[in-house]
């Protein structure tokens, strides 16, 4: 066979791309399209009895305040996420300096991210346990019996306790990314600043921050969308008891407990849109600063 | 629609292959059908006319692993040597089997998922009327629709207090409580002796259903209470079964008669606590007795079972309810073999007794000693009635889970009436929307 270079190129490119494209279409785009389709139906998850109901599911979501009230619980994860980003930056700056044994500290702080989420949730269950959890035992040893709590049972603090778990889990990951960004800043800048008499805070605020602005922005987006999708930790640790249910848990309940797959698909689409809108707004606001994105 | 077409095509192809392959024996099988009932049982050499391979989908992965099912199947094969039984065990049965059913791949014999409406049973299951057992078993009408019986219960349970006799002894309790006040007194004695009086397993969520939907008939004395809820606009009241259950569990929590940590799921660990006597009681079904003995490691003679006194009247109710129902898939290729297996499992295998159930065959006596103890207190036995499918429809519409989650919430809510008002409002709205 005598094929021109151009035809050969096309054949090779298509054949290499075909498999990943098919996989992508089959396992990402096809389900997403079906999700949107189901959100306009009353499918109950059984059999093929699917009826088109138009916007009924969406009307239900936006007319029933219960669905959005539950987002309040996601707020804890967002606040936790902000603290997490700040802490990560703090540790990144410290561990980026010429500290003795900094690699050991980096590994220690990063390790939680490598652990499996489920393992972490189960681990923290035993930490928070009221009668034989290590946290309450520690408080006992320190003579702080009065501070002992039902960490997961008390509605006033359980969401914070759960948000802390997710903070502890993801902080190391954020830190590593920050360290990567910090390492790309040239030392010359700091040296010049020092010569001009800048103190540590000034060089952080005027050199470090502007240089890693894009990364901070990315972290905030990830934090927010992560908070909206908080699921594993509360699901395993409390099953939503004592008012710790999140939006995603509610969506799953609607689908698998109440057999309303159509409505649940609509909830998932709404969640998707919320994340998209938030990301868009964030980008628009941050773009105003003038730097390229 | 494309997908459906493709699936149907592939199913057709597979079906036609299978039919072609066993076309010869198929006729024989059909011929044998008529006299199965007549000579199936008496045929000492075994029924060789019924043959084929059947897949048995089950939630009891433990019985697959420990060989109990193998024992049943080898007994079964003595009667039907040409039937080969394969297992399809699911650890997350309820969830997984629904997917399999939708995909048409649920096996030949399976446990019927709990939330299929009876009117839809015919879409998935074959009628079992010709098994001729429905006059002997309990709960025959539960999975029946339009005169067709689609499922047989595999066991029967009742709820009561499972207790550790050693713990009762240690706390100086000599008499089994027969009224609610006596029950609270026993709790106080246990607490004073440093024993957790009753493990309600709040954190595991599902055991909390015991103080709600699972015990409506028990607390009201009316087996139709749940079905009547379909007609009520405000079924959650402080002075009916809902209020009784919640008041009891709230009292238990308030007085510190339960496990201390309410948030964590300690289900597995709690069995050991009961077995060792660190905790004294469960309010659960009799099925848990075997688990405390086998998984918790209790000596069988240490574990007792008595009916739960929900008030001070002195008569104590006990409601018999069915466990999973066994059915045969409508699309089974070896229908007769599958039906024969169901009949064997229900009537002959001893599955119900081995699993600690009350026998499903009305003529058999329970073998578990704890059940004998339970019956010796002369409870007022109520046999539950088939559920009204509208109940689940309303519950799903109203998004009231009835999984114990609503009890978790109401048990610790500051104002129970407000909690009930919320539930009533959801219930009434869903009922109205569905037009019931």
Automatic annotation (TrEMBL), chain A:
Listed A to Z, the keywords are:
Cell membrane, Membrane, Transmembrane, Transmembrane helix, Transport
Please name the InterPro entries in this protein's record: ABC_transporter_permease, MetI-like, MetI-like_sf
Query: ABC transmembrane type-1 domain: from which residue to which, for each copy?
Result: 70-282
Transmembrane parts of this sequence:
12-30, 75-95, 107-128, 160-182, 218-241, 261-286
Q: Where mainly located?
A: membrane
Cell location: Cell membrane
- Family matches, as SUPFAM superfamilies: MetI-like
Highest taxon above the source species: Bacteria
Matches recorded under Pfam families: BPD_transp_1 (PF00528)
Give the bilayer topology. Answer: Multi-pass membrane protein
Give the matching PROSITE patterns: ABC_TM1
Q: Which family does it belong to?
A: Belongs to the binding-protein-dependent transport system permease family.
* The protein's name in its UniProt record: Binding-protein-dependent transport systems inner membrane component
């Amino acid at each position: 066979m005598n094929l021109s270079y151009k035809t050969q190129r096309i054949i090779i490119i298509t054949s290499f791309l075909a498999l990943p494209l098919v996989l992508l279409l089959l396992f990402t785009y096809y389900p997403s399209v079906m999700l949107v389709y189901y959100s306009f139906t009353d499918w109950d998850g059984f059999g093929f009895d699917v009826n088109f109901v138009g916007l009924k599911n969406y009307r239900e979501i936006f007319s029933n305040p219960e669905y959005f009230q539950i987002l309040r619980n996601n707020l804890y994860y967002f606040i936790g996420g902000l603290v997490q980003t700040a802490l990560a930056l703090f540790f990144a700056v410290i561990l980026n300096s010429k500290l003795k044994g900094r690699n050991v500290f980096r590994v220690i702080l990063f390790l939680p991210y490598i652990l499996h989420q489920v393992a972490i949730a189960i681990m923290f269950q035993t930490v928070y346990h009221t009668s034989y959890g290590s946290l309450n035992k520690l408080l006992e040893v320190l003579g702080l019996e009065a501070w002992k709590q039902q960490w997961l049972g008390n509605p006033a603090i359980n969401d914070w306790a759960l948000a802390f778990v997710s903070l502890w889990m993801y902080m190391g990951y954020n830190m590593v990314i920050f360290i990567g960004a910090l390492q790309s800043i040239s030392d010359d800048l700091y040296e010049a600043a020092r010569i001009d008499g800048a103190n540590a805070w000034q060089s952080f605020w005027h050199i470090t921050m502007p240089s890693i602005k894009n990364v901070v922005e990315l972290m905030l987006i990830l934090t927010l969308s992560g908070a909206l999708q908080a699921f594993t930790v509360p699901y395993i640790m409390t099953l939503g008891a004592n008012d710790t249910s999140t939006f995603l848990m509610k969506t799953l309940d609607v689908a698998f407990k109440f057999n309303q797959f159509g409505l649940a698909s609509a909830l998932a689409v709404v969640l998707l849109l919320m994340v998209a809108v938030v990301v868009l707004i964030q980008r628009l606001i941050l773009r105003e600063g003038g730097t390229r994105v | 629609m494309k997908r459906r077409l493709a699936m149907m095509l592939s199913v057709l192809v597979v079906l036609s292959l299978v039919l072609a392959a066993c076309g010869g024996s198929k006729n024989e099988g059909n011929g044998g059908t008529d006299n199965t009932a007549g000579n199936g049982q008496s045929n000492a050499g075994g029924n060789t006319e019924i043959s084929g391979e059947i897949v048995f989908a089950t939630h009891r992965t433990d019985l697959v692993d420990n060989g109990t099912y193998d024992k049943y199947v080898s007994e079964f094969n003595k009667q039907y040597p040409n039937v080969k039984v394969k297992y399809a065990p699911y650890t997350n049965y309820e969830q997984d089997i629904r997917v399999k059913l939708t995909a048409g791949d649920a096996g030949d014999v399976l446990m019927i998922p709990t939330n299929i409406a009876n009117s839809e049973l015919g879409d998935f299951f074959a009628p079992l009327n010709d098994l001729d057992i429905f006059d002997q078993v309990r709960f025959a009408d539960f999975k029946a629709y339009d005169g067709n019986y689609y499922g047989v219960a595999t066991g029967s349970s009742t709820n009561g207090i499972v207790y550790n006799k050693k713990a009762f002894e240690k706390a100086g309790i000599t008499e089994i409580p027969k009224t609610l006040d006596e029950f609270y007194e026993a709790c106080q004695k246990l607490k004073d002796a440093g024993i957790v009086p009753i493990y309600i397993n709040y954190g595991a969520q599902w055991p909390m259903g015991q103080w709600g939907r699972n015990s409506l008939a028990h607390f009201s004395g009316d087996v139709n209470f749940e079905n009547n809820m379909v007609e009520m606009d405000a079924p959650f009241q402080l002075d009916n079964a809902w209020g009784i259950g919640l008041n009891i569990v709230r009292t238990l929590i308030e007085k510190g008669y339960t496990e201390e940590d309410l948030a964590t799921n300690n289900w597995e660990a709690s069995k050991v606590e009961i077995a060792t006597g660190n905790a004294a009681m469960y309010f659960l079904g009799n099925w848990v007795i075997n688990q405390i003995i086998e998984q918790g490691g209790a000596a069988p003679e240490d574990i007792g079972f008595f009916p739960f006194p929900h008030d001070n009247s002195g008569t104590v109710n006990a409601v018999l309810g069915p466990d999973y129902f066994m059915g045969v898939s409508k699309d089974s290729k070896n229908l007769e073999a599958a039906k024969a297996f169901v009949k064997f499992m229900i009537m002959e295998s001893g599955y119900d007794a081995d699993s600690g159930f009350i026998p499903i065959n009305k003529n058999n006596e329970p073998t578990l000693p704890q059940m004998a103890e339970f019956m010796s207190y002369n409870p007022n036995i109520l046999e539950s009635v088939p559920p009204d499918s509208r109940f689940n429809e309303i519950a799903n519409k109203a998004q009231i889970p009835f999984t114990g989650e609503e009890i978790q919430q109401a048990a610790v809510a500051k104002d129970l009436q407000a909690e009930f008002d919320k539930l009533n409002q959801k219930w009434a709205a869903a009922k109205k929307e569905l037009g019931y």
